[in-house]
Amino acid sequence: MVKITAILFCIILISGCGILPLWLSITHTVGDIILYDKTGKTSSEHVLDAATGKNCKFVRVLQNKEVCLTEKEYEQWLYDMNCHTYTWDIIGRVYCSKGLDN
Fold first, then answer.
1. d(CA 23, CA 34)
2. Model confidence over 63-83: pLDDT tens digits?
3. At what angle do helices 2-15 and 43-52 cross, to 10 degrees?
4. What is the mean pLDDT of residues 44-64?
5. Among residues 35, 43, 59, 102, which one has the fewest Cβ atoms lying within 10 Å of its Cβ?
6. Domain edges within the chain
7. Which of 53, 52, 45 is CA-nearest to residue 91?
8. What's the CA gap between 59 and 65, in Å, rounded?
9. Residue 7 burial (C-beta neighbours within 10 Å; 0-12, 13-18, 19+)
């Protein structure tokens, strides 16, 4: 029941404009900015983490990866990149540091 509630809550959160009043949408956005600054994830990603039991980051889609990965899958992905030094950009994408690996 908790997973169903979490998934429904996540769907409402990511459905965006039109459903929530403007003041609530703005409050949610500000809250997400603060949460992202503190944890590196948005509230929707935290809800998805709880619902799936995996580590979820929407930005992984930009790198053709699954949104949610187990710890082992994430470690394997980093290992397969074969980097000497890893860097994460401001939106959380991981890549090999230039100049050190090339």
1. 17
2. 999 999 999 999 999 999 999
3. 150
4. 94
5. 102
6. 2-53
7. 45
8. 9
9. middle
Taking only the tens place, the pLDDT of each residue in 22-46 is 888 889 899 999 999 999 999 999 9
Q: Which of 67, 102, 56, 58 is nearest to 81 (CA)?
A: 102
- Which of 32-41's residues contact partners 24+ apart within 8 Å by CB, and which partners? 40/92
What SS3 state is found at 62?
Answer: helix
State how far the Cα of 73 lies from the Cα of 29, in Å rounded to an integer.
30
53: left (phi over 0), alpha (psi -120 to 50) or beta: left
The string of DSSP codes covering 3-58 is HHHHHHHHHHHHH-TTTS-HHHHHHHHHHHHHHHHHHSS-HHHHHHHHHHSSEE-G
Inform me whether the pLDDT recorded for 102 exceeds 60.
no
Q: Band of the pLDDT at 15, cuts 50, 70, 90? A: low
